[in-house]
Structures are given as structure tokens and as C-alpha cells.
Amino acid sequence: MSVNTLNEKISTDWRAILAEIGPAIAKEGTRCEAGGDYVGANIALLRERGFLGLAVPVELGGGGLSRLELAAMLRELARYCSSTALAFSMHTHGAAIQAWRLQHQKAPVELLLKRIAGERIQLLSSGGSDWLAGTGTATKVEGGYRISGQKTFASGAPSADLFSTMAVEQTPDGPTVLHIGLPMKSEGVTILDTWNTLGMRGTGSQTVKLDDVFVPDAAVSIRRPAGKWHPFMQLISVLAIPLVYAVYTGIAEAARDIAVEVAKKRKDPWITEPVGELETEWLATRITHDCWVAFAETAQSGPEATSTTYAYRALVARSAIKTVELAMVVAGGGSYFKSMGLEKLFRDIQGARFHPLPDGPQRRLAGRVALGLPIDD
């Protein structure tokens, strides 16, 4: 079967394919969790079955899935393995952003999208550790830049092919953030083994060290003032963050399902009330995330849309975490045992607290937008 035929097939059959390979993904995810290993075999399986190209337009050889469909895929994948889903979401949102840029901005990204679908290259991002201010240094040299720095939270680093990151150049106009792409096999790129964590242990969110890496001028896609809400950062917010939180919505759903099955076997008459509370919180998580993804499909990028997306992020994170907590209450003391699976989901859901924007900055942003104040202050 050709790559194009495979990608066309997966665009309609991804649910059936995921149902087929999901048990193997869950089993490998459990093994990786126990040893703190990267879920590389699961990412390789998704690569083999064409999932890397799901966000790429059909005419470029991809699956052509909408962001609504991509969110549904990530949510379902999270039910099998949280770490696999979170690592894969970082590639997925990167590809989805490039597809949006091609469609709406006519950005010159056709070759990249074709490579994602045809060569099945995996994207890696350092956005969470860089954000508005950027990190690392960019020094101008003939033909390009020399880049140095350390990028934390690079989920999926061990198997990634192309690294989308940032570096800061000191210019007469002040610190300027350069958005760059570089192959992970570039000279001077090293993956540091730093990922030893409470939850999401299999994501391989290692630190990527850049030591005087040469990046040609052509690899710089965007230049922006450091620390400012550049339109591209607002675009990333609206397009990427809902896909990341599809994973946490899936974790909450998995926890709810485990707890309800446990409750069905109990004879306690009082169990209906905590199950009802759990069900209500889970519905709040699901409905809020569904509304968020629908909003992102049509939102016009700008301060209001950015503020709204982070308000959704705060609501989904809060409700998803609460859902897993309530699932443990419903399941009782058995939830404390690893064999039930809730203990792992409880640890993994904590990651929902830490993606941009965390609660304090989110509230300040919402307040400034509501009061009509500049968001860059």
C-alpha cells in the first residue's frame, strides 16, 4: 500500500485503527510507566500506521483531519496511554498550525507538510519552556545564526526529527525572538536525560541542549519582540492549546469510566450521590472542551480570542483534575492500588496545571482584556 493510499484510508478509519492498536499501546505504556521509559515503540507504531500525517491536507498526501477530529483522536488515544497521547499531541498541534498557515496565510510550508505525510517526520516543540520571552541565544554569523541554550519539556524528543524552537538575538531594537526549525541530527544538538517526574513518565519530555548549533537564515520563520504578544503567539494559543487539553479530557474520561465500573459492583446505597457528582464534573469537562475546540475552529486571532482560549484552558484543567479526584473517591481505597489504574491517572492529570497559561497569568490576561487594557503590560 502506498503512503498516499494509507493516509487516505486512515483519514476515515482512524477510529478502527486505534481500536485495533490501542490495547498494544496501553500495554507498552504500562511497561514504560513502570520503568520511566519513553513510549518510543508506541510513537513508532503510530508513525507506521500513518497517524503523523493526520493533520496534513489531503492534497499534500495527508489525512486532512479538522482540529475537531484531531482533538477527538487525541482524547481517544489518551484513554489507552496518557504519555503517548501527550507526546503525540505536540507533533499534532505543530502539524495543524502549519496546515492552518498554508490555508489562511499562504505560508511557504507545503514542502514541510509533504514531508510530514510522505516521510512521516515527527515534529518537536519547545514552546512551553520558551513562550513569550524566549530562551537561549542567537548570534549572527555569515549565512545564519549560532544558537545555544537548553530547552526543557521537549515532549517526544527521543524520536523526533525536526525541532521547532526559539532563540533570542540582541538587536538595536531590543531582544528579538527568532522562531527557528532545525533537524534533531544537527551538530551540537544533545538530548539530556532529565525527565524523572511525578506523572506523564513516558513522554520523553527531556531537555534538548543546543551548543553553538548553526541555523541558516532560511530556517528563521518569524522574528518578534521578546515578551510581547506577537500575532503568531496568539495564533499558537488558539490552535495548539485545545489539542493539548484533549489529552487531559481523555484522561478524565478514562478515570470516570474506571470508577463507574467499580461503583456498579458495590452494593452501598449511598454510592449514587458521589457517582452523580463525578458524572456532573465529567460532563462539565467534556462539554467545556467540546465548546473550546468548536470556538477555536472559527475564532479570529487577537487579544479577545487569546483570553477566551486561556479561560477555557483554566476551566478544562480545573474540571478534569476534579473529575479524577472524584473518581478516586467513588472507587474508594482500591484506587490507591496501582492495579486499578486510577493512581496513574491521578498523577498524569496533574500535568494539566502547568501548560501555558497557568492560573495567575491567565487571570491577569482575562482582567486586562475585560478592562480594555493593553495585554503586553
Please characterize this protein's 3D structure.
- The protein is α+β, with helices and mostly antiparallel strands.
- It has 3 domains: 119 residues, Orthogonal Bundle (Butyryl-Coa Dehydrogenase, subunit A, domain 1), CATH 1.10.540.10; 101 residues, Butyryl-CoA Dehydrogenase, subunit A, domain 2 (Beta Barrel); 140 residues, Butyryl-CoA Dehydrogenase, subunit A, domain 3, CATH 1.20.140.10.
- Helix content is 54%, strand content 16%.
- The protein has a 4-stranded mixed beta sheet with strand order 1-4-5-8. The chain has a 4-stranded antiparallel beta sheet with strand order 2-3-7-6.
- α7 runs antiparallel to α10.
- The radius of gyration is 21 Å and the shape is globular.
- The mean pLDDT is 95.
Keywords:
four-stranded mixed sheet, Butyryl-Coa Dehydrogenase, subunit A, domain 1, Butyryl-CoA Dehydrogenase, subunit A, domain 2, four-stranded antiparallel sheet, alpha+beta, Butyryl-CoA Dehydrogenase, subunit A, domain 3, 377 residues, 11 helices, single chain, 3 domains
